[in-house]
Amino acid sequence: MGKRRRVGVEGGGTTFVVALSEDGDDWSHVEERFEIPTTSAEETLQKVKEILDQLYPFDALGISCFGPLELNETKEKYGYITTTPKLQWKDTNILGILAGKDTKWADVPIGFDTDVNAPAMAEFAYHNNTNKNNEKKEEEEEEEKIESCAYITVGTGIGVGLVINSKPVHGLLHPEAGHISNTPDKWQFPPPTNTEKSKVDDNENIAYDHFEGTCPFHGSACVEGMASSVALAKRANCTLAELKLLSDDDIIWEKCAHHLGGLCATLLLVASPEKIVLSGGVMRRAVLFPKIREKVYELLGGYIGVDRVQSKKGLEKLIGPSRWGDTAGIIGSLYLAEMAYLQR
Asked: Is the full-model pTM beyond 0.90?
């Protein structure tokens, strides 16, 4: 379809990323990439605008960001970050600031969605061969096309993007499954005194930590409050930098897998995605993937009678890492730009 300049902006709690792609039909090929530490909304977005000004002219812009976001174009606060736990960013008109009438690029096609819906759509499109070249097709095992996909990012927060019936889910707001209620893991609290003796014996050697979670809204009662990098570091009594240095057999990864496995099992029971992709800083810890699959198998207990949850090989196809690793978020933003351009 010819060469065109797409620009993507990914807004994360730690870093904002801006990228340029101008490689013909390949929206996933990044030509230039810029990173900006996330500080205050005013300071961060001003720096993003300066980079966009350097890259202009471009043919389309895709913006994805942490939320919650108002995605309903009929609402007064369309384009705003709303009730975010990141209090400096509450009620920030991110779309208006980055692509408002005062910008040179106000009239270019613009795509806007959450920082998890965007990569969910990119993963979905790529899986369905939208962007596979012949060489990649020969290298990868051909899989059936899908109509649904879940994307989970696990970093300083936990977010979930959903594509159902080939479309991203918005609805009342958009998926916020990182804050879904979870069941305590066995290391949190001792069993009740009236628990059967055999169960008490099984837990005799457990060091209960009574961890209260880190979510400012739900404490330990949601997945983000227990399995985000912030929660894991606090529970392991270390800094975020030290968390990366813990060994693969540290008990913290078992605790993490309990909550992420519960999230995946819940998504399978509620939304029935045909593929679940996990990404983000915490998921660089590759040992988490088999632990999460084991937990999903345990929690479902054989109830869903399809091969992808009944066998180890099936679960490996169902639950896996992003094909783009840590760059999945910005690739999703470039995909938003591409779709906005084609729709225009």
From this structure: no
